[in-house]
Specification:
The complex is a heterodimer of chains A (394) and B (217). With 394 residues, chain A is an alpha+beta fold. Helix content of chain A is 19%, strand content 40%. In chain A, helix 3 crosses helix 4, helix 3 packs across helix 7 and helix 4 runs parallel beside helix 7. Classes of the chains: A alpha+beta (394), B alpha+beta (217).
Chain lengths: 394, 217
C-alpha cells in the first residue's frame, strides 16, 4: 500500500472543497475523517444540522457525515475503489442549508488488491453516545466475508457497544438480551473480572460485485483494531491493465501497474545490459521515490518530464517500451521478461535494492561532465557494464 | 609481314582495352550500387531495413537511416546488434550513390538535416540527461551536445544545454522536442521548452557550422 496523498490540516469546510491528487490506474483506498454538528451544537438559532457528502471523480457516495447522528463526534469513511488515469479529485460537499462541516483529515493510498485486504486503523472512538463510527465502502467489489477485531470494555453507567450494519442490514445478536439485541458487541455483558475484551468475529456474507457498505456504529469508546476483507479471488481491475505477457500500452501510462511501468523503464534503458545493471537501474528509481527531491511514487518518478528518454513519444525506444513483445526477437523477449522480473522482485522486496544510486548514464557522457552538470552535489558510485551510477541528493 | 605482326598487337590492344573498360565499368558499377564502407554492402541489403529518410534542404541528398536485422543467437551477438543497430548513409539523389555516415546504437533517434552539410539526431544518455549528436556529412566529424535537466522543486525544471561547440546555455524548463528550420535563409536549431505539462517557448539557435548563437525566442 503506497500512501500518495495525506492532508491532516484540520479545517472547517464552507460549502464545498475539492482536493486534487495524481495517481495511476489502480485500486485506491480513500479515507476521510470528519465531524458534523447537530443544529443545537451550531447555535440556539440554527435551523439545520451540518452534513457532508463525498464525491470521487464525480461519483457520489450515499454514505455521508450527518450532524444529527454524529453530534460532532469523529466519523471515518474509507472507500476502496478503482480509479483510472492520472488526475483525480475528491469533492467534499457540505449540506445545502447548513453549509459547514469540519474535515479532520483525508488520505489516499494505492493498494495492490489481493484476495484479502487488511486494514488496521487501531482507532479508538470519541467518547459519545450511539452514532456512526467507521464506514467501509467497497465500490464494485464482491465480498465473501470480513473479519473485524474490536476491543471494548464494560464501564460504569454506560459501557462500550458496537453495532454492525452490512448494506443497511443490522447484524443483530440473538444470543444477547433484548436490551442489547441491536448491539453486536455489548460491554455491559462482559464479566466484571475481565471487563475488557478484544473480539474477533467473521461475517460470511457472499455479496455479489456491486457497491457494499460495512458500517460500524458505537457507543462510548471502543477501539477498532482491524478488519480483513476476503474477496474470494483477487479482484480484477475494470480495465485491461498491461501484464508481463500482454504488455501493450493502453495509450495511458496511468493504466500500468508500477511493476509494468518500471519494467518498461528498465527495458528501455538497459535492454542490452546485465541483470545486475537492470537491478541497479530499478533501485535508482526506488531511491528517487524515497528521497525528498523527487515525487513519492515510482509512477511519478518515471514519468517526471525530462528524466528518462524512453518515455518521450519521439524517442526511438518509445515504440519498443510501449509494445515490448510486438514482432520481436527471442533475445528481446528474454530481456523484457528479465526486466519485468527485476521490477516485480525489487518492488515486492523479494530482492533487496542493491544501490543508493539516483542517477545513471551510458557511454558517450564522461563521468566528469555528469558530475559537473547533472549531479553537482553528488558522487560517482560505480560502473556496471556500460552504465555509470551516481548518488545525488537533488 | 608488318600487317601480320600488327594483327596480334591490335588484338592485344583491343582485348586489353575491353578488359580495362570492363574493369572500369565494374568499378563504376560497384561505386554506384555498393556503399563505400563495410557495414552497408548493398548485396547484403536484405539485412537492412530502410526505416527513415529525409531530403536535404537543397534537395540534392537524402539522409537514410537503416536498421540492421538481427540474425545472431547468443547474448554477445545481441549486444553487438544493439550497439550497431542503426546505420546512417547519405544518398545522392541524382546518382543514387550512397555514402556511409555512421553506425549508431539502438537509442539513436531519427536524423534530421541542419543546413546542407550537417545532420543531427538524439542519442541515449541516462537519467536526467539527453544527448544530441551532430554529424558533418562531408567530413563525418561527430559533435556531441548534452541536455541535463534538474528538478528544482516539485515539477520545476532547470536545463543546461552543453552545445556541440563547447558553449553552455542554461534555461528554465525542459526540452521536450528539437527540430531544425530555415529562418531568413539561415539554419536554426529550435528547442521546444516546456515546464511540467505547459509549453513555455521555443528557443532558437542560429547554426553557423562552428557555433550555435541564440537568437530572440
Amino acid at each position: 500500500m503506497d500512501f500518495i496523498f495525506d492532508d491532516r490540516n484540520k479545517r472547517q469546510i464552507f460549502d464545498h472543497e475539492e482536493l486534487h491528487f495524481t495517481s495511476f490506474s489502480a485500486f485506491h483506498l480513500i479515507t476521510i475523517a470528519a465531524r458534523t454538528k447537530d443544529k443545537r451544537q451550531i447555535s440556539p438559532d440554527a435551523l439545520h444540522h451540518e452534513s457532508l457528502t463525498v464525491e470521487i471523480d464525480g461519483k457520489h457516495y450515499a454514505s455521508s457525515f450527518q450532524g444529527n447522528k454524529l453530534h460532532n463526534n469523529l466519523q471515518t469513511i474509507s472507500i476502496v475503489t478503482f480509479l483510472r488515469g492520472k488526475d483525480h479529485m475528491v469533492r467534499l460537499v457540505a449540506g445545502a442549508k447548513q453549509k459547514t462541516a469540519t474535515l479532520e483529515g483525508l488520505g489516499v493510498s494505492v493498494i495492490d488488491l489481493a484476495q484479502t485486504l487488511t486494514l488496521t486503523p487501531h482507532a479508538q472512538a470519541d467518547d459519545g453516545n450511539g452514532r456512526p463510527w467507521l464506514t467501509f465502502i467497497l465500490d464494485t467489489l464482491s465480498l465473501v466475508s470480513f473479519t473485524s477485531t474490536i476491543t471494548y470494555s464494560r464501564r460504569k453507567r454506560d459501557s462500550d457497544d458496537v453495532k454492525i450494519i452490512i448494506d443497511s442490514t443490522l447484524q443483530k445478536n440473538l444470543f444477547k438480551t433484548i436490551k442489547f439485541l441491536f448491539w453486536r458487541l455489548a460491554g455491559s455483558l462482559l464479566p466484571l473480572k475481565t471487563s475488557t475484551k478484544t473480539e474477533t468475529e467473521t461475517f460470511t456474507v457472499n455479496l455479489p460485485k456491486k457497491i457494499h457498505t460495512i458500517a460500524f456504529e458505537t457507543d462510548r469508546t471502543p477501539t477498532f483494531e482491524s478488519i480483513v476483507f476476503d474477496f474470494g479471488t483477487k479482484p480484477e481491475p475494470p480495465i485491461h491493465s498491461p501484464t508481463v505477457d500482454n504488455p501493450a500500452w493502453t495509450g495511458d501510462f496511468a493504466d500500468d501497474s508500477q511493476e509494468i511501468l518500471l519494467a518498461r523503464l528498465i527495458f528501455g534503458e538497459a535492454e542490452d545490459q546485465s541483470k545486475e545493471t537492470k537491478m541497479w537501474i530499478a533501485g535508482s528509481i526506488l531511491n528517487r521515490a524515497k528521497a525528498q527531491a523527487w515525487p513519492n511514487t515510482i509512477w511519478e518518478v518515471i514519468l517526471q518530464p525530462g528524466q528518462y528518454d524512453p518515455f518521450k513519444p519521439e524517442d526511438p525506444n518509445f515504440p519498443k517500451i510501449t509494445d515490448p513483445l510486438n514482432n520481436t526477437s527471442e533475445k528481446r523477449k528474454e530481456s523484457w521478461y528479465e526486466s519485468y522480473q527485476v521490477a516485480r522482485d525489487i518492488i515486492s522486496g523479494t530482492i533487496a535494492n542493491p544501490t543508493e544510486a539516483t542517477h545513471f548514464h551510458g557511454r558517450g557522457v564522461s563521468i566528469e561532465w555528469f558530475l559537473e552538470n547533472v549531479v553537482p552535489n553528488g558522487k560517482f558510485i560505480r560502473q556496471i557494464d556500460d552504465t555509470f551510477f551516481y548518488l545525488s541528493p537533488n | 609481314m608488318a600487317k601480320v605482326k600488327l594483327i596480334p598487337l591490335s588484338l592485344f590492344i583491343l582485348i586489353t582495352g575491353v578488359a580495362v573498360q570492363q574493369l572500369y565499368l565494374k568499378k563504376e558499377k560497384t561505386a554506384v550500387t555498393q556503399p563505400t564502407v563495410a557495414g552497408i554492402h548493398l548485396e547484403h541489403n536484405s539485412d537492412l531495413d530502410e526505416v527513415f529518410s529525409e531530403t536535404s534542404p537543397t534537395g540534392a541528398e537524402a539522409i537514410i537511416q537503416y536498421k540492421r536485422i538481427f540474425h545472431g543467437k547468443d547474448d554477445l551477438a545481441y549486444r553487438n546488434y544493439l550497439a550497431n543497430q542503426y546505420i546512417l548513409a547519405v544518398r545522392e539523389l541524382n546518382s543514387h550513390r550512397e555514402y556511409f555516415l555512421s553506425i549508431n546504437d539502438y537509442k539513436s533517434g531519427q536524423p534530421h538535416w541542419l543546413d546542407n552539410d550537417y545532420v543531427f539526431f538524439s542519442g541515449g544518455c541516462g537519467s536526467s540527461c539527453s544527448t544530441l549528436y551532430l554529424v558533418n556529412t562531408k567530413t563525418k566529424q561527430v559533435y556531441q551536445a548534452v541536455f541535463s535537466t534538474l528538478v528544482l522543486v516539485q515539477n520545476t525544471f532547470q536545463t543546461t544545454f552543453a552545445d556541440w561547440f563547447g558553449k553552455q546555455h542554461a534555461f528554465s524548463g525542459y526540452v521536450k522536442h528539437q527540430r531544425s528550420a530555415f529562418i531568413d535563409g539561415k539554419a536554426h536549431l529550435i528547442l521546444e521548452v516546456w515546464d511540467d505539462n505547459t509549453f513555455v517557448k521555443e528557443k532558437k539557435f542560429r547554426f553557423t557550422g562552428t557555433s550555435l548563437e541564440e537568437v530572440d525566442s
